[in-house]
Amino acid sequence: MNMTFLQELFNNITQRDALLRRRRGSGESPNHGDLVAACHALLESDGEASSIALASRALEMYECLTADERLAFFTRLSEEFAAEPSTIDAAYAAYRESRDNATLEALFEACEPRRQELFRRLNLARDGTYSLVRIREDLLDMLRKHPNLAAIDADFAHLFGSWFNRGFLMLKRMDWNTPASILEKIIRYEAVHEIRDWDDLRRRLDARDRRCFAFFHPAIGDEPLIFVEVALCKGLPARIQPILAGEDGGVEEPEEADSAAFFGISNCQTGLRGISFGNFLIKQVVQELKQELPQLKNFVTLSPVPGFAQWLAERGHDENLPTELRDAIGDMQNAGWHRNDELTKTFGSRLRPLAARYLAEEKNTRGLPLNPVARFHLGNGAELHRINWLGDISTKGIEQGAGLMVNYLYVLNDIERNHENYTAHGTVACSSEVKDLVRKARKQAKGEATK
Predict the structure, then answer these.
(1) Backbone angles phi, psi at 169, to 5 degrees
(2) Which residues contact 20 (CB under 8 A, 6 or more apart)?
(3) Angle between helices 341-360 and 432-449 (to 10 degrees)
(4) CB-based contact 129:218 (threshold 8 Å)
(5) Which one, of 264, 260, 247, lies nearest residue 292 by Cα?
(6) How far separated are the first and last CA of the chain, in Å rounded?
(7) Taking Cα atoms as reference points, which of 273, 257, 329 lies closest to residue 157?
(8) Which residues, other chains included, contact 436 with Cβ-Cβ below 8 Å and sequence gap of 6+?
(9) Whole-angstrom Cα distance, residue 356 to residue 312?
(10) What local confidence, expressed as pLDDT, does residue 330 receive?
(11) What HEC string does the chain produce?
(12) pLDDT, tens digit, for every residue of 161-185?
């Protein structure tokens, strides 16, 4: 037995526990300076046992910091743990002289910020990966007001992209027999259609025409990364309320279904924002469903349209729109409009073309669709297939999407082509029905402009 290893481990654990006891006894909490010192010590550590102990100590200290202290820590992390310019210059000069693999490797190493090695060592601690995900969650909350911290986020994204690649992800089906500790998280993390209680969850999981799949990572344990809820149907669904209530008039037996509708996709870990799971999840779930139910022909979403109501309200002041459209948009600011059959019939014919224009043509500063849900599915190779008027009449659905829901269709033979056209040219794959609505929206605007 290696007694030196055991002694080193014992000494470090003893020192850490003694420090924590002193702080708890005195009521003293660590500050960001203490944590920065611990991070320097971690980087200077040579032994595996001491590195594990120091990493655990640093993460415990971070948990004790106030919000202001965490901001101060991130600021110092940005300044003191960056790559060293003089080292980069020297490595680049050596590479220009030799241009061999050895000098290239030295240049790569010099360019890497010391933060990345720090994060790797912090990851040695028990539950270190999940702790780092939560730390990045804090960082993301601060980025808007403190853009100078963006370099730290880039380091996290770089490492997480490797640590959470598809090869490490495990797909599991969730059902009523899944451990309660995980089901509680499904309730908490549902971000699209709130799960009100356990009965509501059971309706979504226990029915024979429902499926739920989630990705897990071995370093995160029973914390789901992302999950998708599926309804097996005949034909493409247009409304969410019957599905949530279990009254969709769908299929009694799964073998009767010809369509699988993805009606809720929820990212569970804010600290993993920007790390792509959804495209892998959908493709693997399609494979799982095809294997279980080979008769399925359609794989489609029933998706919300967050941001559309706000975009509509802004268009209400656009004098280039026909008067009847601006009047309709104004009337939609009145509560309960969706319960008036005469209004909803008129609004539907006038506003669906605007919705098609919003989803297919309105772009952000990067030239991508303005709507985040559209960006997700179109980027995964789906087709903008159908716009459903009054597909979601919940309070949230009315306030965020003016009651609209969208079917994005995943045609297996077209996914790669759609993805490549979207990525290379920004092309939005649309059904003929949606294309007709887009043309109608253009004619509406053109007709007003000639008046």
Answers:
(1) -85, 140
(2) 60
(3) 100
(4) no
(5) 260
(6) 91
(7) 273
(8) none
(9) 12
(10) 83
(11) CCHHHHHHHHHHHHHHHHHHHHHHHHCCCCCHHHHHHHHHHHHHCCCHHHHHHHHHHHHHHHHHCCHHHHHHHHHHHHHHCCCCHHHHHHHHHHHHHHCCHHHHHHHHHHHCCHHHHHHHHHCCCCCHHHHHHHHHHHHHHHHCCCHHHHHHHHHHHHHHHHHCCHHHCEEEECCCCCCHHHHHHHHHHCCCCCCCCHHHHHHHHCCCCEEEEEEECCCCCCCCCEEEEEEEECCCCCCCHHHHHCCCCCCCCHHHCCEEEEEEEEECCHHHCCCCCHHHHHHHHHHHHHHHCCCCCEEEECECCCCHHHHHHHHCCCCCCCHHHHHHHHHCCCCCHHHCHHHHHHHHHHHHHHHHHHHHCCECCCCCECCHHHHHHHHCCCEEEEEECCCCCCHHHHHHHCCCEEEEEECCCCHHHHHHHHHHHCCCCECHHHHHHHHHHHHHHHHHHCC
(12) 999 998 999 999 999 999 999 999 9
pLDDT in tens, 212-229: 999 999 999 999 999 999
CA-to-CA dists, residue 105 to 81, 109, 155, 157, 263, angstroms: 20, 6, 19, 22, 47
The neighbour count for residue 346, using CB atoms within 10 Å, is 15
Tokens of 380: 């995964």
Comparing C-alpha atoms, which of 263, 189, 265, 279 is closest to residue 230?
A: 263
Whole-prediction pTM:
0.85
Active site residue 377: yes
Catalytic residue among 45, 56, 131, 303: 303
* Residue ranges of the chain with per-residue pLDDT less than 50: 1-7, 9-11, 13-14, 17-18, 20-26, 448-451
Rounded Cα–Cα distance for residues 444 and 438 (Å): 10
What is the distance between the alpha carbons of residues 402 and 309, in angstroms, rounded to a whole number? 5
- Residue 231 forms beta bridges with which residues? 210, 261
Which one, of 317, 383, 386, lies nearest residue 356 by Cα?
A: 386
Please name which of 157, 148, 129, 160 lies closest in space to residue 74, comparing C-alpha atoms: 148
Are the C-beta atoms of 352 and 390 separated by less than 8 Å?
A: no
CA distance 53 to 18: 13
Strand partners, 408: 384
**Which candidate in 377, 394, 419, 431 is catalytic?**
377
Nearest to 394 by CA among 246, 244, 248: 244
- For residues 205 and 402, what is the distance between their CA atoms, to the nearest angstrom? 28
Is residue 45 part of the annotated active site? The answer reads: no
